[in-house]
From TrEMBL:
Residues 27-216 form the Amine oxidase domain. It holds the Pfam family Amino_oxidase. This is Flavin containing amine oxidase, putative. SUPFAM superfamilies: FAD/NAD(P)-binding domain.
Length: 313
């Protein structure tokens, strides 16, 4: 189902939609004769030289679509409605390079991207069962309901202070506080770089939410559904914009945009940024860099110990 502007929803088969998307994507992601593979050969390391994509970093998705003349407005709008789901934002506010990163991660095809990003769900409870499995594996200390207020550091280590005034000290700290939207709420005595500070001031464009509907019959569909707490409006919008005859039995959502500890999200990863996979990727890398730093600190002591042992013989 695709709805363009005020026009009534139009049904389009999955196969036809797939063909349209691939055709537009092929042209959209090929700029000045450079294919997407050439523009961003390493989406997990997008700045790796020559990083041809950076030449087009000023373009929005909308700018790029406006430069394509071989497609109808309907085809371009249909394509944009799909890229809008990448950052929960319109094409005019979505970076061309951001869309390109998703496409490259999906193996340079829209079908590949959707197969990786959308089709599969974790069975038996989705993210809740996944979070419970992580908690089940975890053996360390845990502290809940303790928002962090300040992070200070010196040569001896890091001190983290909670809003209630509790101090926690450690040699190293790994921060997972959502980068652009929430990091500005925590005071760091050793602040992030000026370019990151300017990103924090601007905030992330993603103000999206996900609403899961339980229908009598299974239907595909995405949409912008307004005030998340207005039940009547949400169900009316669903009927009007997505499926007029669907019997909505229930819906569940969370207002991530107004959640003070998410504010719509904005994560740290390089590759699958905006995905749980990316959080896992980063969660794997951050402790490794702490281990590497600790090893570096230990090395001189080992050398000293060595010298001492040799000296004593
Ligand atoms: C509407 C929506 C839909 C999404 N859909 C998908 C999807 O279908 N598939 C997918 O893979 N990804 C999806 N994502 C993205 C996914 O949720 C994130 O990529 C992932 O949660 C990032 O993990 P994280 O650990 O980096 O950050 P988060 O999960 O945001 O965790 C950060 C933690 O820091 C805590 N925190 C923040 N500030 C403080 C503070 N001051 N003190 C203490 N703690 C603090 C927060 O409470 C939170 O627990 C979606 C995101 C949104 C918003």
């Amino acid at each position: 189902m695709f709805k363009q502007g005020k026009a009534p929803p139009r049904e389009i088969s999955i196969d036809k939609a797939g063909d349209f998307l691939e055709r537009v994507a092929q042209s959209f992601f090929t700029v000045d004769g450079h294919s997407s593979r050439k523009l961003m050969p390493y989406p997990h390391d997008p700045f790796k030289r020559p990083a041809l994509c950076m030449k087009y970093s000023h373009l929005s998705v909308k700018d790029r679509l406006d430069n394509l003349h071989e497609f109808s407005d309907w085809e371009k709008n249909f394509f944009e409605s799909n890229t809008n789901t990448f950052g929960s934002a319109l094409g005019k506010d979505t970076a061309f390079t951001g869309a390109l990163r998703w496409y490259a991660l999906g193996g340079n095809s829209m079908a590949g991207l959707f197969e990786m990003a959308v089709f599969y769900k974790i069975e038996n409870g989705c993210m809740t069962s996944f979070a419970r499995a992580i908690l089940g594996d975890y053996k360390g200390d845990m502290l809940f309901g303790a928002p962090i207020k300040d992070v200070t550091q010196n040569k001896l280590g890091v001190r983290v202070t909670t809003k209630s005034g509790q101090d926690i000290k450690a040699r190293y700290v790994v921060s997972t506080i959502p980068f652009i939207n929430c990091l500005g709420d925590v005071k760091f005595d050793n602040p992030v770089s000026p370019i990151r500070q300017s990103a924090i001031r601007k905030g992330h464009i993603n103000k999206g939410a996900k609403i899961h509907f339980r229908l009598k019959a299974t239907e595909p569909g995405y949409g912008h559904l307004g005030d998340k707490e207005n039940h009547r409006q949400i169900i009316d919008h669903f009927r009007k914009d997505i499926h007029p005859s669907a019997a909505v039995e229930a819906y569940v959502t969370h207002d991530w945009t107004n959640d003070p500890y998410t504010k719509g999200g904005a994560d740290w990863e390089v590759g699958w940024r905006g995905f749980v996979d990316g959080a896992i990727e980063q969660g794997h890398q951050a402790p490794q860099s702490v281990v590497a730093a600790l090893k570096l600190e230990l090395r001189p002591k080992l050398i000293q110990m060595d010298t001492w042992l040799w000296g004593s013989q």
